[in-house]
Structure formats: C-alpha cells, structure tokens
Amino acid sequence: MNNDASAPSAKAQIGVTGLAVMGSNIARNFARNGYTVALHNRSIAKTDALLENHGGDGNFIRTETVAEFVAALERPRRVLIMVKAGDATDAVIEELADAMEPGDIIIDGGNALYTDTIRREAAMSARGLNFVGAGISGGEEGALNGPSIMPGGPVESYESLGPMLESIAAQVDGEPCCTHIGPDGSGHFVKMVHNGIEYADMQLIGEAYDLMRKALDMPVAEIADVFRAWNSTELESYLVEITADVLSQVDAETGKPLVDVIVDAAGQKGTGRWTVKSALDLGIPTTGIAEAVFARALSSSTDQRLAARGLSSGTLGSAPADRETFINDIKTALYASKVVAYAQGFDQIAAGSAEYGWDVDRGALATIWRGGCIIRAQFLNRIREAYHEDPALPSLLLAPYFRDAVEVGIDSWRRVVSTATLLGIPVPAFASSLSYYDGLRAERLPAALTQGLRDFFGAHTYQRVDKEGTFHTLWSGDRSEVTE
Ligand SMILES: NC(=O)C1=CN([C@@H]2O[C@H](COP(=O)(O)OP(=O)(O)OC[C@H]3O[C@@H](n4cnc5c(N)ncnc54)[C@H](OP(=O)(O)O)[C@@H]3O)[C@@H](O)[C@H]2O)C=CC1
Ligand SMILES: O=C(CO)[C@H](O)[C@H](O)COP(=O)(O)O
Predict the structure, then answer these.
(1) Whose CA is closest to atom 27 on ligand 1?
(2) 134 phi and psi angles, rounded to 5 deg
(3) Which of 37, 144, 200, 417 has its CB surrounded by the most CB atoms within 10 Å?
(4) Which residues are identified as catalytic?
C-alpha cells in the first residue's frame, strides 16, 4: 500500500470518492485488478477503515482533501463518485470540477436520476470535462467481485474508461458485464429501469410466496425448498436464489422464520418510482413495475391498513385441491409474469432511447445484465438471443421462445389469478401482467368506447375503422357525424 500522495511516483489510474458500501468495494475491486486507486471520502474515517481492513488488496493512495485527491491522479484524470444520489452528488461534482482540468473524466456511479445526469453532463462539457453517468448494480458483493456496469456519456470517454470498467465487471461466458450504453443520461436511464424490473421481480416473488403460504398453508421452510428447487429451472436467477436463503433464515431470538419477525412495510429509495414516472411520460404501460411500486406504498400505509383490518372479504373460495399442481401453476405464473415485466422494461428502454436519440442496443443490455446485477437471471440469455435475432422486436412476448413459454403456461396463469381472487389473496403483479397480456393480444379493446365518451363530453374526435380521417358526432345536436 502506498499512502503518500506527495511522492512523485504516487499516481493513480483511478480515484474513488465516497467510500461507503459501494465505493469501498469498487475501490478494492480496482486495486485487486492491478490498478492504483486514489481514495477519498468526505470524512477520513471511511478511508482509514478501508486501508486498515483491506489495504493489502492492492495499491491505494490515501488522500484527505480534494486537492490531494486530484493531484494523485494520472492524466487524463479519472474519478469515480460513489456518494449519496441527489444534492450530495452535485456538491461533490462542483468541488471536483473546480480542481480538475479539461479532458479529465468524472464518472458518477451512484443511482442518479437520468435527467440530472443529462444536466450534469451538459454543465461539465461546457467546462471541458467529460462526464459519464454510469449505472452500477450488484450491491456490496457485486461491487467487490464484479458488478454489472452501464456507462453512458461521450463515446470518447469510453475509449479511455472502457477497458478499466470491463476488467472489474462481472464476466459471463468470457464477456464482461459492461458496455457503453449511449450518450449522456442513457446509462442512468437503463439502471433506473433495471431497478424498476428489480421491484417487479421481487413483487412477483412475494406474491408466489404469499400464495403458497395462504392458499396452501405451507410452512416457510417448505416454501424455501420450493424456491431452491425452482432455481434449477428456467426461473434460475439471483433473486430466486436469495429468496430461498431469506426464507430459510431462522430468527435467533424467537426461533421463528426471520420473515415472520420482519415488519411487512417495504421501503423504497426512489428508482422504482422514477421508472414509473418516466413510463407515464413516455406512454409505456409498465404495469408490473407500477404495481410493484404501489404494492410497496400500500404495505407502508400502516395506519390505513390497521383501520381496514375488519373489512369484509365476502364469501371466499376453497383452497386448491391438489397442492403439487397448484405449486406448479404458481411457478408457471411467476415465469410468465416475469417475462411480461422484462418485456415492459425493455419497451420503456426502447421508448427512452428513441425519445433522447440514444440508440440503446437492447441485446447488448441483456448481455450485460446476465451477471453482476441484482436482476441477473438465466433467461436473460433468451432475451439477448431474441434481440440479436431481431433488434427491432416490437415486444419480447412476440419472440418465438417467449411466445411459446407463455402459451404453454397460460392456463396455469389464469388458474393462479382466479384462485387468488377467490381466496382474497392480493396478487396485483400477477393479475396486471395477465391483463396486460390479454390486452396486448386482444383484437378489439374498449378504448373505442373511451374515444366515443371523450368525443361526447369534450368533442375530442375519433378515427373510424373503415375510412381515413378524423370525425366528430354532433352529440348535442342531431347526432350526425361530421368530418373534422
Ligand atoms: N447500496 C447499494 O446496494 C447500491 C447503491 N448504489 C448507489 O451507489 C451510491 C453509493 O451508495 P452506498 O455505498 O450505499 O452509500 P450511500 O448512498 O449511503 O452514501 C454514503 C456516502 O456518501 C457520502 N456523502 C453523503 N453526503 C455527502 C456530501 N454532501 N458530500 C460528500 N459526500 C457525501 C458519504 O460520506 P461520509 O462518509 O462522509 O458520510 C458516504 O461516503 C448511491 O448513489 C447509491 O444509490 C448503487 C447500487 C447499489
Ligand atoms: O441499485 C440497487 C441495486 O441495483 C439498490 O439495491 C437499490 O437502490 C435498492 O432500491 P430500493 O431501496 O428502492 O429497494
């Protein structure tokens, strides 16, 4: 370990500022891959803790001030910011920009809102600095051993940064889970949607668990075994794997399953909500993600839930007769709903890419989500294949593999949603995904009536199925139709 920033030889290829869970582990990852890493944190305690506990991981340069930090870096300087998203990021960028020089690169690896990244890149570009908004996923373990990295920003910056980032990223089948996503805010946009999908995936897993618990009265340990078994099937994924671990955990104090002593109010830091807001702006029905965000909100509406406990369920149906068949139905419903959630997320990425002119390659994105990130899953290989075969695929649900998978499982999916409804078990993500699928494949939708109503009360006009043009019915007159 080199901790003398004043030595002439002390030059780092990369600097990391913000040494909490993510930053400290990424710094160690860089060091383990042979890079000399300059370390900086607002308060020196985290820097010193890292050096004390993990200084042996490689070459680190300890710095206390931003001036020392910047001076410790090779030119062009590369600084990775891993601080709390929002105002803290702006404060750190400002301080760094004042100390850096044209041509230097600032990378924000936090969970920034993509519109903030667009703004920040423009501001830095005006000062001659390259700004790269990079989504990074993988949590603590991924940051250390190989995350999935989604860098946006100028392509020239990727030429300098790409090899470094690719070397610390997770590797799947010899390919790094890191690629240049596109200009300005594209990296943070896709990371935002990644997190939205993460929300949907977790909600679907939660609904599957709840059904086994309430409809089949299964003990938690048995449900853990089911998830463990599912992880050797087409459902193989990090989230299914850790679901088995969380459900297997027994609380040392009470001897109960840990899940039974955790308060059932899900938190959220904002990326799921941002995804839904963006989907609304782009006009993309990401129903799975939206239901997941709302389900977390409902779970946290503690006072309302307490007051509503006595509300009637009406007459409930009876539990499924055959346990094994129903477990298999749940598995199928989980897979089909998961396909819908990913399909919707990828639709949103296509829409965002078109809106901002980013030209995001969805096949390449599926490739880098196969490892390192929280939503890594076996079936991302299928998604990658689907987009490689047809980069303009209108919906993942139309790719032959997914079309077949959903078709085979549709009866199970319907049984799960109807059984849950009859038993009074909430399954917002399963149900909305099935409705989305039915809506997508429907020949006619009641939107025709919506158009008629809009025309009635607001003269909003409509199109006809049998001729070109825009029409209006004189609803408060003789109800004849006029051309607009
Ligand atoms: N945790 C996770 O699993 C993941 C997190 N992320 C993102 O990565 C980033 C880092 O996350 P995480 O490691 O959890 O840390 P936190 O989000 O908890 O942020 C803590 C770090 O931010 C620094 N900080 C806070 N405010 C300021 C400020 N005003 N000026 C300078 N530094 C400040 C802290 O410094 P100090 O020690 O002095 O308080 C500390 O180093 C975040 O943007 C997060 O959203 C991305 C993927 C996964
Ligand atoms: O970025 C992540 C993983 O990719 C974080 O784990 C994410 O911030 C968790 O979000 P939330 O706290 O809203 O559930």
Answers:
(1) 88
(2) -120, 120
(3) 200
(4) 191, 198
- Cβ of 139 closer than 6 Å to ligand 2, yes or no, is yes
**Alpha helical stretches, state H, 264-322:** 271-282, 287-299, 302-308
Q: Where in the chain is the domain with CATH 3.40.50.720?
A: 14-180
pLDDT of 226 over the 60 cut: yes
- Give 90-117 pLDDT, tens digit per residue: 999 999 999 999 999 999 999 999 999 9
* ipTM value > 0.95: yes
Residue-wise pLDDT tens digits, 262-304: 999 999 999 999 999 999 999 999 999 999 999 999 999 999 9
Cα of 465 from ligand 2 centre, angstroms: 45
Cα dihedral 347→350→355→356 (10° resolution): 140
The band of 10, judged by pLDDT with boundaries at 50, 70 and 90, is low
CATH topology classification for 192-441: N-(1-d-carboxylethyl)-l-norvaline Dehydrogenase; domain 2 (1.10.1040)
Is 171 exposed, middle or buried (CB count within 10 Å of its CB: 0-12, 13-18, 19+)?
middle
Q: List every span in the chain annotated with CATH 1.10.1040.10.
A: 192-441
> Residue 56: which residues within 8 A CB-CB, separation 6 or more?
1
Residue 18 marked as a ligand binder: yes
Both tokens of 284, joined, read 């993309």
pLDDT digits 0-9 by tens, 333-374: 999 999 999 999 999 999 999 999 999 999 999 999 999 999
Task: Give the nearest ligand 2 atom to 270 CA.
Answer: 13
According to the annotation, is 22 in a ligand binding site? yes
Distances from the Cα of 390 to the Cαs of 368, 394, 396, in angstroms?
Answer: 18, 9, 10
What is the CATH T-level fold of the domain 14-180, as seen in this structure? Rossmann fold (3.40.50)
Is 41 assigned a ligand-binding role in the annotation? yes
**For a pocket test of ligand 2, which of 21, 148, 198 has the largest count of ligand atoms closer than 8 A to its C-beta?**
198
